């Protein structure tokens, strides 16, 4: 059975781990952990390509029945084909995994912005869950432990029915970016404790680190972003001194290096600890840009987001130049930047 090329049985990829009946290229639900209980409310479903750059379908109120699983939800609302005896999602609505330009591409899923640690048929849906399936290149890493594009999740509902306490940790508690992030969370009804950026204590709390990279990197989980996507799942690499930010494409190549005034909003996670979000920049003005983008309109469908010094939105990873995703991403970036500026 293929390992890295097609996913691991207990990894975060699209393993189904249930009996499936394939009929004319689609899958009927059979033995996917469904029960007769009460269906979870306020569930949403999103299917995208290329790290969220192309939206295939979004369901704000998908069909849900009984004690649903992530796999059952997908099968109930989309056309799904599997391989390896029904143990692996090969295609959703006709879009298939495989190899593109010699690089592996497969389906991955996230619940409330967190990459699931087990198969889709083993992951039970809870009320308010935002389920996101994305087909993307995994040549650099098969583990992107957390993404920002499901905001306001996981701040509202956590993961697995468990809400984490939230801590906003700032390099300067009196700064405007710190106040902005706190106000955005309060508007959601999330009351966050405030503290100085520390050494990564309280792993059961969802941390939002606000400040220049030189301060944010003191957190062990955040510090791993400096080592690139294989370490953190974030396709950006701040310099050790925090003065520059390298923007990476899906192949791990640097496509742009940003200097003073650049910002970054990203999330990562270590093991089973709560995610760590960073709202940071190469300077104070970059942190301000990042804080202003700490909202649903700017972060929707983004794995992470870089901000150029003049406010240009740069979804991460950057599309490979000349690709269809590059054209789609350029259009979406322009729309997001206009929305953020109020135009």
Summarize the structure.
This protein has helices spanning 70-77, 176-187, 213-216, 220-223, 229-232, 284-292, 296-299, 324-341; strands at residues 20-23, 26-29, 44-49, 54-59, 80-83, 88-92, 95-96, 98-100, 103-111, 114-115, 130-137, 166-170, 193-196, 206-212, 236-238, 245-248, 254-258, 263-268, 276-281, 304-307, 313-316. Helices cover 18% and strands 29% of the residues.
Structure description:
The protein has 343 residues and is an alpha+beta fold. The chain folds into 2 domains: 20-137, Ferric Hydroxamate Uptake Protein, Chain A, domain 1 (Beta Complex), CATH 2.170.130; 166-341, no CATH class. The protein is 18% helix and 29% strand. The protein is built from 8 helices and 21 strands. Helix 2 packs parallel to helix 6 (284-292). The longest helix is centred in the C-terminal third of the chain and has 18 residues, at 324-341.
**Uncertain parts:** 1-12, 15-31, 332-343
The profile of the biggest β sheet is: 7 strands, mixed
Approximate shape = globular
Number of helices: 8
- Fraction of residues in β-strands: 25-35%
What is the domain tally? 2
State the separation between the terminal residues, measured CA to CA: 52 Å
Lateral arrangement of strands in the main beta sheet: 13-12-14-19-18-20-21
Total strands: the figure is 21
- Rounded mean pLDDT is 85
The residue fraction in helices comes out at 10-25%
What does the oligomeric state look like here?
A: single chain
Structural class of the helix and strand makeup?
alpha+beta
Radius of gyration: 19 Å
What is the chain-wise order of helices and strands? EEEEHEEEEEEEEHEEHHHEEEEEHHEEH
